[in-house]
Structures are given as C-alpha cells and as structure tokens.
Design brief:
Layout: H1 8-20, H2 38-46, H3 59-75, E1 82-86, H4 89-103, E2 111-115, H5 121-129, E3 132-136, H6 146-152, E4 157-163, H7 175-185, E5 188-192, E6 218-220, E7 234-238, E8 249-250, E9 258-259, H8 269-306, E10 310-311, E11 319-323, E12 334-335, E13 341-344, H9 351-365
Parallel strand pairs: 2-3, 2-4, 4-5, 5-6
Antiparallel strand pairs: 1-7, 6-7, 8-9, 10-11, 11-13, 12-13
This protein binds ligand 0PR.
Ligand 0PR binds at residues 31-33, 88-90, 93, 119, 121, 163, 167, 192, 194-195, 222, 234.
Length: 366
C-alpha cells in the first residue's frame, strides 16, 4: 500500500483491466458455478455490511437465513430441517462429518466410507478430523457399488456418504440403499447434493435422494452452484435441528453466546441474495432453467457424437462426458480422473454457445 491513495476512477480502471483477463463465461464449459441472477447481485450489494456471525446485530438478516434454510428444507422434503448457510460444499461436508464424529465418541480409530466419486473435500475432511477414508469403487454407470459399500463398513464407521449429482459424471447414487447401510451399521448418513440439490428436484421423474429417504441425516446443497446465488453460498441441512448443537463453542462476547458454524464472520449478502432468487423464480422458474440446461446437454451429446466422440454415460443431469480427449482451442473444458472429456452445461452455456462450440469441434476435425 502506498502512502497516498489513488482516485476511485484510477482504482476501478486498474481492477477492470485485470478483470478483463478473466475468461468469459461463454467460453467456460467446465464450471459448476454460473453468472448469478441479477436479483442476487442487487441484493448482495444491499446486504454487503451484514455479518451473520453476530446475528443479534442483524436480526433481519438472520431471519432471512432462517427463511432460506426453511425453503431449502422444503425443497429437500423436510421444511423443518435444521442447518445453516456455509461457504460451500466443502464446509458443509466437513461439518456433517464433524457431527458424525461427535456422535460416536467411543470409536477409537474412526473411518468414513465414501464413493469413488466423492468430491476432494472429503480428503480434506479426513485429514483435518484424522479419519480413515474408505473409498468404495464404482459400480454400474459411475455410481457407488452399494454391495461393496456394505462390505466396507464396520463398527468403526462413523458415517457413510452418498453423492446426488457427482462432480465428474453427474450421476446419482442409490441413496435409499446407502441410507439402509448406515441404519444397519447405526452410523450417520450424509448426502452430498452440493451440485445435484438444485437440479434433481426439477427433473422429470426425479429419483429419491433427499430427506424423503428415511435414514438420511444430513445434506449439502449449494445455492452458489445452480441456485444462481453469488459466491460463497452453500448450506448444510440436518434432519435433527439439534444435531448442530454438538459443534457449539462458547462465544461469550457476541450477541449469541454459542456458535456452531465453522467460520465466525459470515456475510449475509450471499444468503439474502440466494433467498431472493428462490422467492423470485419459484419452482416454475427453476424447472424452466433446468429444462433448458437439459435440452442443451442433449444437443451437446448429439452434436459431439456426430463428430465422432462417444458419450461415457447417458446424462441424467446437465453434465456430459465423452471419450476422446481433444477439444478445440479457446474453450475451457475439463477432464475426469479417467481422462474423459467433461462438460457442465450451466445456464451460461446457452444453445448459441453450444452451436458455436460444436462448429469449432467440426472444424478442428476436418
Ligand atoms: N460436493 C460436490 C458434489 C461438488 O461438486 C463440489 C464442488 C463440492 C462438494 C465442494 O463445493 P465448494 O467448491 O463449494 O466447496 N464442485 C466443483 C469442483 O470442485 C466446484 C467448481 C466450481 C469447480 C467452479 C470449478 C469451477 O470453475 O469441481
């Protein structure tokens, strides 16, 4: 920092030049985040000075967090679910497993059993909580092999995890079977729906994956992915609202004397924005958005196959994965751990973007 400051104009122009170096969304085919809804952006600014870490000072904003958790609970078939707004799927997954660990203090060398598809946030979680991570191999269609999972749990298992909307292949584990395994082992069942939570409810004939499944104890669900919220906005939802209390620490000088969240200071800006989007779009708005993403996903699959690529799975969600590694220059695609070419067809990946991409693929192969 210099002794003397610059004018606002100078600073903004400096920053805007750097912002111009960022990739444009219409070239990004690999992201699970998208351009926030305009109402989320407007509300974000309105709430930029709020701090949910000291909710007694911001009772109105704290009410909005409760409303958001209630709306998310409703979407997950449990309007009375407990929970709070996190910084994203990583924090939600970590906090869920912390709860699972606290519930079984008698286990000396605890482990968790996760699908091969599990997001790397579980590696971080196990490192921080000193847990063994048992990874269940894929079964059919890149979903978890539940028979193997049942064999891999034991008396030291504190939690099993299912993924509803896998990061790499967009697949949905058989949550009912995973929840039954947890019940039989008398351990916690966490569903990572960080990505799928805003997609699956709006598909035609969605599978059961949420609190409608008996035995599911907690869910991660991120408004900053397909909830069109500003970053960072995730959520941890709990079947038993009291379950969060086991994480509480004393926060004597704050307006709330106990705190269960991982971070202390938490912005209300993204939370209010996420709630605004849900209230504004309603289920119909989300259904239309997801229908559009699915239509574009199908168009991408047809177009890629016409160019000689083969789909690895039939997309259930807005993720399409192909064999064949090469993509045209200028586009940001991604690759799975098995080196499959992966696309996430978010709302910013419009039909025009897809046609433009497919034209480049065709030209590249000529
Ligand atoms: N669970 C699942 C199923 C996820 O897909 C992700 C993130 C997480 C948990 C962790 O969420 P946070 O990153 O919010 O903590 N999935 C993407 C990933 O890591 C996130 C992402 C978003 C990646 C935008 C790239 C990108 O440009 O691959």
């Amino acid at each position: 920092m210099k002794d003397e400051g610059c004018s606002m104009g100078e600073v903004l122009s400096f920053l805007s030049d750097l912002r111009d170096e960022d990739l444009h969304h219409d070239r990004i085919l690999s992201s699970m985040c998208t351009i926030p809804h305009p109402i989320a952006i407007a509300v974000h600014e309105m709430f930029s000075a709020t701090n949910l870490g000291d909710p007694g000072l911001y009772p109105g904003t704290a009410k909005i967090e409760d409303l958001l958790i209630h709306s998310l609970g409703e979407l997950m078939h449990l309007p009375d679910a407990g929970g709070y707004c996190t910084s994203g799927g990583t924090e939600s997954n970590l906090q869920a497993i912390r709860i699972a660990k606290k519930l079984k203090p008698e286990v000396k060398e605890p482990n968790i059993v996760v699908p091969a598809s599990a997001h790397f946030s579980f590696d971080k979680t196990c490192d921080m909580l000193d847990l063994e991570m048992r990874v269940v191999p894929y079964g059919t269609n890149y979903t978890v092999d539940t028979e193997k999972m049942a064999e891999m749990v034991d008396r030291s298992t504190i939690a099993v995890v299912a993924v509803a909307g896998t990061t790499e292949y967009g697949m949905i584990d058989d949550v009912s079977v995973v929840a039954r395994i947890a019940e039989e082992q008398n351990c916690f069942c966490h569903v990572d729906a960080a990505f799928g939570g805003f997609v699956i409810p709006f598909l035609e004939n969605p599978p059961l994956f949420d609190f409608a499944v008996t035995g599911v104890d907690s869910l991660s669900l991120d408004p900053h992915k397909l909830g069109l919220a500003t970053i960072p906005c995730g959520s941890l939802l709990l079947r038993d609202p009291k379950a969060l209390n086991c994480l509480s620490v004393d926060s004597p000088y704050l307006t709330m004397k106990k705190q269960c969240t991982l971070v202390g200071t938490r912005s209300g800006a993204d939370v209010a924005g996420a709630y605004a989007v849900m209230k504004h779009l309603g289920r119909e708005g989300f259904r239309a958005m997801i229908a559009g993403c699915m239509e574009n996903t199908r168009r991408l699959v047809v177009g890629m196959e016409a160019c000689g690529y083969s789909r690895v799975v039939d997309p259930i969600m807005n993720v399409a994965v192909f064999t064949g590694e090469i993509a045209p220059v200028g586009w940001k695609v991604s690759y799975t751990r098995n080196n499959h070419l992966r696309f996430v067809v978010m709302p910013h990946v419009t039909c025009d973007v897809i046609e433009c991409f497919l034209a480049d693929v065709a030209a590249m192969r000529e």
